[in-house]
Structures are given as C-alpha cells and as structure tokens.
Amino acid sequence: FFPVIVFSFSRRECEEYAKFVSKLNFNTPEESEQVREVYNAAMLNLSEEDRELTAVQAILPLLEAGIGIHHSGLLPVLKELIEILFSESLIKCLFATETFAMGLNMPARTVIFTQVKKFDGTDMRVLAPGEYTQMAGRAGRRGKDDRGICIVMCDERMEELAMKEMILGQPQPLNSEFKLSYYSILNLLKRATGTIDAEYVISRSFHQFQHAKQLPDMKVKLAEVEEQAAKIKAVGGEEIQEYIKLRREYRDAEKSVMRAMLEPSNCLRFFSSGRLIRVRDGDTNWGWGVIVHALPVKDAKGSTTHVLDVLLRCGPGAAQGKLVPVNDEADKDNSTEIVPVGMHLVDAISAMRLTLPDDLRTTDARQSVWLAVEAVTKKFIDNGQELPLIDPIADMKITDVKFINTYRSLGALREAFQTHALYSEADARKNSALTAKIDVFEQKSQLLAQAAELKSKIQSNELTKFRDDLKSRSKVLKKLGHIDADGVVLTKGRAACEVDTADELLVTELMFNGVFQGLTPHELVALASCFMPVEKSNTSSMNKSAKALAKPLKALQDSAREIAQIQLECKLEIDVEEFVESFKPTMVEIVYCWATGESFAEIVKKTDLFEGTIIRAMRRLDELMMELHRACIAVGDTELAEKFEKGAESLRHGIVFADSLYT
Known about the structure:
The chain has 663 residues and is an alpha/beta fold. 50% of the residues lie in helices and 11% in strands. It has helices at 11-20, 29-43, 48-51, 54-64, 76-87, 129-136, 160-168, 182-189, 194-203, 206-231, 238-261, 264-267, 363-382, 401-418, 423-426, 433-459, 462-479, 491-496, 504-512, 521-528, 546-569, 576-581, 588-595, 600-604, 611-634, 638-649; strands at 4-7, 67-70, 93-96, 110-113, 117-119, 124-126, 149-152, 275-281, 284-298, 304-314, 335-342, 346-353. The strands form 3 sheets. A 5-stranded parallel sheet has the order 2-3-1-4-7. A 5-stranded antiparallel sheet has the order 11-10-9-8-12. α25 packs antiparallel against α26 (638-649). The longest helix is centred in the last third of the chain and has 27 residues, at 433-459.
C-alpha cells in the first residue's frame, strides 16, 4: 500500500493522526539515516535558536519513522522538507490537507479519505466531484504502479446516489468571480479616459464572455420550465395564495429567530439533561424529544460545535439504523431511540424539563420517558395550549435590536398564520384535497419563480450591472475625497492606487487622518497587522502594545464603520458590523514583539495560531508595509514613508524570512 497519503480536512486532525501512528516505523535503518542527513542539511537554513523550536525538534522522530504531516500551518522550511522527503520515497505515510493535492506533483500508491464531508466556511457538505477527483487522482504512480488504491472511510450513513455523484459526477464549472475593486477603478481612472477604460475591461472580461455564452442554454432551460409550468393546471384561488405567502413569511421569520437562539453562547446553558426540544429536518417534523446529553465535537475546521443526544420516537427500522419519523398507522412497530441531533435541527426549545432515569439503555426505560412526553404534550393540547417555550429575550437575554424586532413580529405572523381559515386542515399533515391543491400550487409557483429568474438573467445586461456597480463605487470615492466630480484622481486616490494587499479605503483614511503619524515603526507594523486575515484565535492579549495602540485601534474601528456606512448609503451591499469585525487585533501583540526583537519561540507561546499562519501573515504584512511606503512617496510624505520602510525591515529576520529549500 505504501506510500500512502491520508487526506484529512482539519490541520489539527492531521497532527493528531500522525501522533496515533508515531510508535510505528515504516522506514529501514538506512532510510532513517538518509532522512537525518536531509533534515540536518535543511536545518542549516535556520539559526541555532530557531533549530531548537518545539515544532522543529518534534518533527524529526516522525520523519525518521517515515511519517509526515503537510498543511498550511507548518513552518515553511518543514513543509518544503516534507515535500522533498516524500518525493524521494523517504516518507511512507503522509497526513495532509487537500492543499497537498493542488499544484504539487506528488503521487502515491494509496490515497485514504478520513471522511467524505468538509466544512466550506458555511456548512458541512459532501466533497464535490472535482475535489474528490483531484485528491483521489494522486493514487497511482506512473511507471511504478499498475493501479492506484483509493480508500474512503465513511463514519456515517451515506446515500448511494450521493456517493456516486461524489465519485462519478461532473466537475464544477469554472465560473468567473470578476469583481470591481476600488484599487482597479482608481488605477483605471488615472488614465486620461478612465471610465471608458473601465468599461473596456469589463466588456472584455471572462465574466462577460461567460454570460454571453450561457444565453442560448438559458433560453432552452426557460422554454423547458415554462412548458412544465403550463402542464400544471391552475388550482385554488386568492385564499390559497394568501395562505401560502403567509406560511412562508412565518417560517422565514421563525428560522431567523431560531438561528440566533441556537448560537452556542445563547442556548448551551438550556441544553441540559431532560430538556424538551422539537426537532425538524427540513419539512420532516420529528416532533418533541428529550435531551439526554449535549456533547462538544470538533468540526472539519477544528472548531468546537455541539451534538445533542435526543430521545425521540422513531418509525419502524430504527434498531437496524434506518431512521424515519414515527408512523402513526404502525404504532406497534415504532420505537423510542436516542438519536444524535445537530443543533441546527432544533425547531423549538421548551421551558419544561423531565427527570430522566439513570440508565436509558433498556427499551422499557426509554419507553417510560416517551410516555411522560406524551402525557405532558397531551395535557397542554387538551387545554388548547402549546408547550411553554424558552423566551429568547426574557430567558436568554438576547439584546440585539434587529433580533428583538424580528421576534416581536413573529407573534403577529404566528397568530395570522394559525387563525387563517385554511390552517387547521392544511397543516394537519393528512392527504386532504386542500393539502393536495396547496402542494400543486407551490409546485407551479416554484416553476414560475424559476422562469422569472431565468428571464431576468436573459434580459439583464451584465455590462449594465457592472456600470451600476462602477457608478456606486465612484460615489464612494467622491465622498471620501479620492476623486473629484469629474473623476480626476486626487491626492488621497493616488495613495490608494498603491495599496492592493489590504483595504485601500481604510488604509488611506488612516493615513490622511493622521493616525499613523505619531507611531513608531514597530507600532506601525503592529497596527497594520489588523489588515492581515488569519483564522479565529482564542488568544488576544496585548500586554506590551496596549498602551501605545489603544487609541489607533479605536480610530481604525471608527474609520471602518464610517467607510462601511458610506458604502451602504451609496447602495452597495455590505454588512457594517461584519466589515468592522473583519479588522481584528489578533496579530498585533505577536507582530509588535517580533518587530522589537523577541525570539520566535517566545512569540508562539503568546498565541494558539499555527506557526505557518504567523509566518505567512508576516510575509504578507511586509508586502503591505512596502505598498504603504510607496503610497507615502506618491503623495510626498517622505518622513512617513521612511517609517513604513523601517517597519518592514523590523520584520525581516530569523525564521520568518528564512531562505526556501528550493532556491
């Protein structure tokens, strides 16, 4: 099977898996000796001090045993070392993230997937066909193996169609993500015919080409959708339309409220043993259940999430692993089981708790709890009431104004929905004639909505959309003083033309507001680190930099909010708070200490960020400092330009700027 690449979608999991097999040795004594020679040669690129780093010392025993780790959080020198050793067949088992399959020609005999789902920044999803093929394609070495071996480890039930789609499906199409930026607009406006040049670039972009190419296909699709809609006979009248609209509005508001309530900081303290919750998976209503445990687990991104063990009434086949909702017509085949439930499936949180038996492993114990649930719910239903629910404002103490307004409107929507003439029959979930009419009506409505969307895409001119975007962004630039009424680039705009690594509007605003003026080069580079995107960190201490940077950090946040508000006023889509929160001081203390001469060993103790993340951010920060240096030269501020250059120089030492092994 060797060499083997084990793909995991979490950097921390890669390191944990390597530790699990660290007692195994896949190399011969001769190969281990070769590994030590290559390792010692690579370490000559580092100073004596950096060679003693924990990460550097800890990797050698694994490498000698033929075990490697490869992910973006590794020190660059270690990552390159592992690539060299793997290419020379001195690493037999490599634990890597999917980035190893991108761009590097490093085939193996066997590829193993530790899971088939990954976190894409929003949700857990099954691997796309292109992603699977890219990684699985590493199995099999040309000229060495007659075949490649791919092993997929499934730790949960997966539908056959989903697996087939992942393995045999078509790769995702390559779609243009072309977007106008202030940097590109300002640089185009620096020319004599700026606006015309901007439109020239837009009209000849890959995005515009794709739109024009897709028009014939969209017209064919529109004809198909309209034909399907025409085949469905019109059913119902205004009353049904009104009911469906009301139901959608109510459910959308309900989902919005539940999303906020299910934030761990709001709900975890209520998810104690015995709490009654209602579970819904899409349109499938599982009804009320009882929480047994709330368990913390790691998602694919390495973040902590929670899974609830819930006692639920299930339909036939639950004991064999087939989970379906309860079947009222076959009650004797139903059973009460403890089912793991993701928090996103919680539909309601009751204010009531039951006392659970100490041992729920027996069928009788679980059945007794379910009988108690039935008795409680029946009591309230017989009195014409619903189970009392946790109040997000009074109980959870949620104070967000937008949420409070949505929650208060939910009551009026619920009353209008539940008092509607069609509510009782349509929502009884029985196959009534009215329910069938509503289903048909919704089907036709969805097709008509799809047709309207296709018509809009066909009729819309992508160039016109970009013109509108260009117009809005030009208004922002005028309000902030980057260009004049005629589109001529002013002094502030000339500075912004030099900044491409960070938010050009915010950087120049701080520059012209005097925020940078009173700072030393070390403080400047520390403040500029707020523009470097890094993963979430649980450490944010600012012991050494707090005094000097408290006011500048406040000014940065205020300027960010002001710029976001102006963009909102100019009809650009932006979340003000999200924009402000994107400039976090995660790296401030780390960068300040590094710039003032602290060792990397001391730096890594101040944070839970990966070493590779720190180095990558500092190298990019060096680029930003030199861009700011050029921006100051462009507007004639040589004194500030010199400070930015000195700030960049304070970063360029030690392991952060160690030479590559490939040079």
